[in-house]
């Protein structure tokens, strides 16, 4: 049964149909490319224009693909970052700290520890834009901030179950031509550098027990011997063992305290999450875990034994034949990985309850 007004309705439908088809065809010809391309936002024109100004001849072809813009909303801890992803070999990433590019930014990277008062973006969020919560401190050392639980689309932290996980370090395969790693000469047995002394911390209690059984050479502000960055490398590499004791115990919270000794050719003695969790990150035979022994005395005995038996000591460096340590560049690695993530995940991503996820 047809409606009495069918003539006009039909005409309208046909007209509408034509419009839709022609729009689609136009869209298709303008935007079709053989590979998947980023959804086109109305800012593409401007952005293409901008990148063309800088482009070299070889870049021009690629240039049809719009860049992914990551806005660093605040310098983390006030440190200016190197805004360049070349070291990561990520293409088509524009990292910027220019807040006037807010409306173009596909991602806004917000460092938790620098959130205060009302210093978050106030303009409406473009529909395609994702806010990224960035934090490398453990829950114990991260103050909760009210009213931010539902703000962020993505998390970027040391935690492996972050949307954008950035551990403090990771192991990369060694290239075949690369020189083999040389364990540096040692003149100390066990060392520890610590600036923040708090007798309530597990690490201090463990140290007090361990030092009864083995000599520990100590440095750092806590012992009235502040240590510069240059001194750090020199000291740590000259010790057979280094106490890689984290300030707090949380899953995946494995900081430079592990990765720097590994890099310098010193065996880390780890206190932090479980051995199993460490083994999610680095080979099980690259470190000694305080829980490997029922008592601090037995741990000390093992260290003293390894001091006497070089064959056994050197086994802890077998991994260096295959791998080398790469450390994350604070802030820059996070921004670059955010860019790569955004390029690979272009759909909607709901915020998660941050409080429950991080502190819960
Ligand atoms: C592109 O850049 C030129 C100069 O660099 C400028 O004059 C022009 O207005 C820009 N076009 C758009 C669409 O932003
Ligand atoms: C253009 O190429 C030159 C030489 O190959 C290089 O030094 C320069 O950094 C390139 N510029 C850009 C914007 O890629
Ligand atoms: C620590 O070293 C001193 C001498 O440097 C030595 O007398 C002492 O026995 C050592 N203590 C332990 C527990 O090895
Ligand atoms: C050192 O350890 C090896 C096993 O790796 C053993 O064969 C050797 O007897 C040990 N040497 C000493 C002095 O304990
Ligand atoms: C990001 O999260 C906010 C808040 O939940 C939401 O309104 C917005 O649509 C999300 N954006 C994207 C691109 O997923």
Automatic annotation (TrEMBL):
Q: Which reaction does it catalyse?
A: a beta-D-galactosyl-(1->4)-N-acetyl-beta-D-glucosaminyl derivative + GDP-beta-L-fucose = a beta-D-galactosyl-(1->4)-[alpha-L-fucosyl-(1->3)]-N-acetyl-beta-D-glucosaminyl derivative + GDP + H(+); an alpha-Neu5Ac-(2->3)-beta-D-Gal-(1->4)-beta-D-GlcNAc-(1->3)-beta-D-Gal-(1->4)-beta-D-GlcNAc derivative + GDP-beta-L-fucose = an alpha-Neu5Ac-(2->3)-beta-D-Gal-(1->4)-beta-D-GlcNAc-(1->3)-beta-D-Gal-(1->4)-[alpha-L-Fuc-(1->3)]-beta-D-GlcNAc derivative + GDP + H(+); an alpha-L-Fuc-(1->2)-beta-D-Gal-(1->4)-beta-D-GlcNAc derivative + GDP-beta-L-fucose = an alpha-L-Fuc-(1->2)-beta-D-Gal-(1->4)-[alpha-L-Fuc-(1->3)]-beta-D-GlcNAc derivative + GDP + H(+); alpha-N-glycoloylneuraminosyl-(2->3)-beta-D-galactosyl-(1->4)-N-acetyl-beta-D-glucosaminyl-(1->3)-beta-D-galactosyl-(1->4)-N-acetyl-beta-D-glucosaminyl-(1->3)-beta-D-galactosyl-(1->4)-beta-D-glucosyl-(1<->1')-ceramide + GDP-beta-L-fucose = alpha-N-glycoloylneuraminosyl-(2->3)-beta-D-galactosyl-(1->4)-N-acetyl-beta-D-glucosaminyl-(1->3)-beta-D-galactosyl-(1->4)-[alpha-L-fucosyl-(1->3)]-N-acetyl-beta-D-glucosaminyl-(1->3)-beta-D-galactosyl-(1->4)-beta-D-glucosyl-(1<->1')-ceramide + GDP + H(+)
Spell out the InterPro entries in the cross-references.
Glyco_tran_10_C, Glyco_tran_10_N, Glyco_trans_10
Which keywords, in A-to-Z order, does the entry hold?
Glycoprotein, Glycosyltransferase, Golgi apparatus, Lipid metabolism, Membrane, Signal-anchor, Transferase, Transmembrane, Transmembrane helix
Q: Where is this chain's protein located in or outside the cell?
A: Golgi apparatus, Golgi stack membrane; Golgi apparatus, trans-Golgi network membrane
Question: Where in this chain does the record put each Fucosyltransferase N-terminal domain?
Answer: 67-169
The membrane topology noted for this protein in its Swiss-Prot or TrEMBL record is: Single-pass type II membrane protein
Q: Which Pfam families does the record cross-reference, listed alphabetically?
A: Glyco_tran_10_N, Glyco_transf_10
Domain Fucosyltransferase C-terminal, which positions?
184-357
Q: In which pathway does it act?
A: Protein modification; protein glycosylation; Glycolipid biosynthesis
What are the record's GO terms for cellular component?
A: Golgi cisterna membrane
Q: Which residues cross the membrane?
A: 14-32
> What GO terms are given for molecular function?
4-galactosyl-N-acetylglucosaminide 3-alpha-L-fucosyltransferase activity
Q: Which GO terms describe its biological process?
A: lipid metabolic process
Q: What is its EC number?
A: 2.4.1.-
Q: What is its main location?
A: Golgi
Q: Which family does it belong to?
A: Belongs to the glycosyltransferase 10 family.
Self-association and partners: Homodimer.
Q: What is the protein named?
A: Fucosyltransferase
From which source organism is this entry? Solea senegalensis
The major lineage groups are: Eukaryota, Metazoa, Chordata, Craniata, Vertebrata
